[in-house]
Amino acid sequence: MASKLLRAVVLGPPGSGKGTVCERIARSFGLQHLSSGQFLRESLGGGGGLSRTPQFICQTTELLVLALAEVWLHPCCLPASHSHFCAAACPGFPRTLGQAKALDGICELDLVISLNIPFETLKDRLSARWVHPASGRVYNMDFNPPHTQGVDDLTGEPLVQREEDKPEAVAARLRKYKDAAKPVIELYKSRGILYSFSGTETNKIWPYVYTLLSSRIPPILPDEEH
């Protein structure tokens, strides 16, 4: 029989490293990391795998989460061979108090991981981001640049900077996030399920996230693997 399910979300402003943290959680704890595009492709393809596999749901949209979270998080979706189920909605879902209350109607969260990164660091990260439009591959000119400046590593096609990642837009995005996220953070803090991690580098924050989750889920990879 499966043990108690673990339901968690990862919160953080744009550029805080939620995607990287989600991928590491997926690898370390044997959970599947899905993007919204992958989820839609598999669901519409009729494979049915999503209803049978424990999911670590990341990088998805509000509507997709609200429409499908009840299926993802319901105990009957968990195979008997799996003892734990961890679901996380990113980027930063729930982003508003209204979304948090909507999520309450679907499930009760066990823990909320909040990534606190200085806004100046986030501005630099986001402003240095370029993407390959066709695939969604993301490059950062500071720490993950393409092999050839301005072009995608795999296709050689031009990279673009999204409007939302241009410096003037980044500051507005971060201000908007801060205002909207404050009551969400306070809500989960009042429930005693909020765990906040601060820093400027994901590699330095990750060991603390790993330790927290290791107290809830048996890891399949040691921390030093990362």
TrEMBL record:
Boundaries of every Adenylate kinase active site lid domain copy: 129-163
UniProt-listed InterPro entries: Adenylat/UMP-CMP_kin, Adenylate_kinase_lid-dom, P-loop_NTPase
Domain of life (superkingdom): Eukaryota
Keywords: Kinase, Nucleotide-binding, Transferase
GO molecular function, one term: AMP kinase activity
CDD domains: ADK (cd01428)
Coiled-coil intervals, chain numbering: none
Gene3D superfamilies: P-loop containing nucleotide triphosphate hydrolases (3.40.50.300)
PANTHER family named among the record's database cross-references: NUCLEOTIDE KINASE (PTHR23359)
UniProt similarity note: Belongs to the adenylate kinase family.
Protein name: KAD4 kinase
Annotated source species: Rhabdornis inornatus
Encoding gene (name): Ak4
